[in-house]
Amino acid sequence: MEQVITFIGENIKVFYILILSIFLGVEVISKVPSILHTPLMSGANAIHGVVIVGAVIVMGLADSNDYVSLVIGLLAVILGTLNVVGGFVVTDRMLEMFKKKPKS
Question: pTM of the predicted model, to two decimals?
Answer without folding.
Answer: 0.57
